[in-house]
Specification:
Chain lengths: 331, 290
């Protein structure tokens, strides 16, 4: 029964995503791509924050590195295929995460957060100052977007927004699925155990620093994928869009608003943020003010976020405690 | 004295002045961290808010000294309100909740000043006798920078007396090392927390007023200085006042001499310094607690 409902739900979701551009037009299609990019970005942050208990104030490092990696590849490598550019974005973020992980796995809590803030700012300053490579304030823009080429089969033009929509959603959806699958593996369980009691995990014979480093690298790499798609989508990446501290704060806020406990909380948070931004920017320029107020209200009154609220209402209205497994998953 | 030495000394004074402003900010941060275990990410926003208060008081009364007195106190009061009505309530949700709350507050302050005062940069003028240069031992110094150094030392003197010579300071220091124990001894620790938070934001406020005449007042005022102050706290060691003092001076001198010798890479110097320190000592130079 449950699996049937899940199947129906999955088919419906795919149908909605497939027909979305025809239903809502090109403007809202682009809004949806932005939402999907930040949903993936926020999910990677939640791997660190919600699952492993590491708060990063510099997650934009990986987003920006992925974006710059892809943009530089397309700018400098003649005839670089699309998927290779994407891969380069992913790998450059992975490389950066690997370089940082020896320092980062040794600290946690506030020190972890502040180190990320500092390194994030370092990347921001570097992106601004190394004009020869990154183009300074203007960033890298107008690089060619190659068609998606599968030799001998098809060549899909990516300049067409509709085609790009399907490509972006496919990549982001696949990444989300991989990450979701990852959290369900035994390794994903160790990840949660590290958050709850790192010492105990150590006593049980698992290697805590290595575990942290692997999660860190995966989270960084997929944040790089989000950044890479962002660069392709905008056909522009600048220090402001890639490395600014607000880019780091955005996924934290999305995760908090959506629900820190569950895998899909950040996705919901990204959707809520997209909607709020759409609505408030019609009335006021001070979108950040509204965001700040929402953040304060969420922390004060709904610390488990939107999905946490739903969970509470479920218990209140249906009077039925959720299954133990479900509780553990969301706690 | 030959002009090269004179230039070095002048740069040194610039660096010291900046270091002092950094320390005013960082001491508040590190005090709050040492006491409550949270990093107040709205600290830079308070710094900027105080500069706006300074502008407002100056526009209304025309007295810089009055602004120097009122603006930091007003900022401190905002800090007290924040601690009492927001921060205290989210304490139960752990440090991440508190960190994110202060981010929210900082966003609100940042955007709030734009609503009230606009995004233009506003000038703040100092009394005539603080402008211009003074010549000591054949060298010309900008008076206002010397004034900043003096002001910072004066404020820090007061702080040191309060912390080390009064009963209140004793309670504060005791609460820094073990808040639970002090609470068990019958001292109202939440009240002490509130006082320390107010004190920390007051220090940020003084730094804000001190820097307003140099950089003018604009919404992005706290970005650079605020980040530098955070790095001072990280490098000096969380909760260590002595570490903050030493690193503030080092950072101030690094920034002023850095601009002179390697102007392109000057902003990176502090990060490099920080990275080296943290690779060797992850908790900072004088840091102990997690």
């Amino acid at each position: 029964m449950r699996t049937t409902i899940k199947m129906v739900f999955a088919v419906l979701l795919i149908a909605v995503i497939a027909f979305y551009p025809r239903l809502f037009g090109i403007y809202y299609t682009n809004v949806f791509v932005t939402f999907a990019i930040f949903a993936l970005f926020a999910v990677t942050l939640n791997l660190l924050l919600g699952y492993t208990g590491l708060l990063s104030f510099g997650h934009a490092m990986f987003f920006g590195t992925g974006a710059y990696g892809t943009a530089l590849a397309l700018e400098h490598i003649g005839g670089c295929p699309l998927l290779l550019a994407l891969l380069i974005g992913f790998l450059s973020a992975v490389a950066w995460a690997l370089m940082l992980s020896p320092i980062m796995v040794r600290v946690s809590g506030t020190a972890f957060a502040m180190l990320h803030l500092a390194f994030g700012q370092l990347m921001y300053v570097l992106a601004l100052k190394l004009r020869g490579i990154t183009g300074g304030e203007d960033g890298i823009g107008g690089f060619p977007i190659p068609p998606l080429n599968i030799p001998g089969v098809v060549s899909i033009d990516m300049a067409d927004p509709l085609n790009f929509y399907y490509f972006a959603i496919a990549v982001l959806g696949l990444s989300l699925w991989i990450l979701w699958f990852f959290t369900k593996t035994p390794f994903g369980t160790i990840m949660i155990s590290v958050r709850d009691n790192a010492n105990r995990v150590d006593y049980m014979g698992f290697k805590v620093p290595q575990t942290k480093a692997l999660i860190y690298t995966i989270a960084g790499g997929f944040a790089g994928v989000a950044g890479s798609i962002y660069a392709l989508f905008q056909n522009l990446i600048s220090a402001e869009d890639g490395y600014h501290v607000f880019v780091s704060f955005a996924p934290i806020m999305m995760t908090m608003v959506g629900g820190i406990g569950s895998f899909f909380g950040p996705v919901v948070g990204s959707a809520i943020f997209g909607i709020i931004e759409e609505l408030t920017s019609r009335y006021t320029e001070r979108v950040e003010l509204v965001m700040g107020l929402i953040l304060i209200l969420v922390i004060m009154y709904a610390p488990m976020g939107f999905l946490g609220l739903i969970q509470i209402f479920k218990i209140k209205w249906f009077g039925r405690l959720p299954q133990k497994a479900a509780l553990e998953e969301t706690s | 004295m030959d002009p090269v030495t004179a230039m070095y000394i002048a740069q040194g004074i610039h660096g010291l002045a900046y270091g002092m402003i950094l320390f005013l900010l960082a001491s508040g941060l590190t005090l709050i961290f040492g006491m409550m275990g949270i990093l107040n990410l709205a600290h830079a926003a308070f710094f900027m808010l105080s500069a706006y208060f300074c502008y407002q008081v100056l526009a209304m009364t025309g007295s810089f000294w009055l602004a120097l007195l009122i603006a930091p106190v007003a900022t401190g009061l905002v800090g007290v309100v924040l601690e009492r009505f927001l921060l205290r309530r989210v304490h139960a949700f752990g440090h991440i909740g508190e960190l994110i709350l202060t981010v929210g507050v900082s966003l609100v302050i940042l955007e709030g000043v734009k609503v009230f005062w606009g995004t233009e940069s506003l000038p703040v003028s100092v009394p005539a006798y603080l402008e211009g240069l003074i010549s000591i031992a054949g060298l010309e110094y900008p008076i206002y920078r010397l004034f900043i150094i003096g002001l910072a030392l004066f404020v820090l003197g007061i702080l040191a007396v309060v912390l080390y010579k009064t009963r209140l300071g004793m309670v504060v220091r005791a609460a820094v090392s073990d808040a639970d124990m002090v609470n068990a001894l019958g001292i109202n620790v939440p009240l002490v927390f509130m006082f320390v938070f107010g004190l920390g934001t007051w220090l940020a406020g003084i730094a804000g007023v001190a820097i307003a005449p140099i950089l003018t007042v604009f919404p992005g005022l706290g970005d650079q200085v605020g980040l530098d102050a955070f790095m001072v706290v990280v490098v000096g060691g969380f909760g260590s006042l002595g570490g903050a003092f030493l690193v503030s001076i080092i950072f101030g001198l690094l920034s002023s001499y850095g601009v002179q010798f390697v102007s392109q890479l000057a902003p990176v110097l502090m990060f490099v310094f920080m990275a080296i320190v943290l690779v060797i000592k992850p908790m900072g130079l004088f840091g102990e607690r997690e």
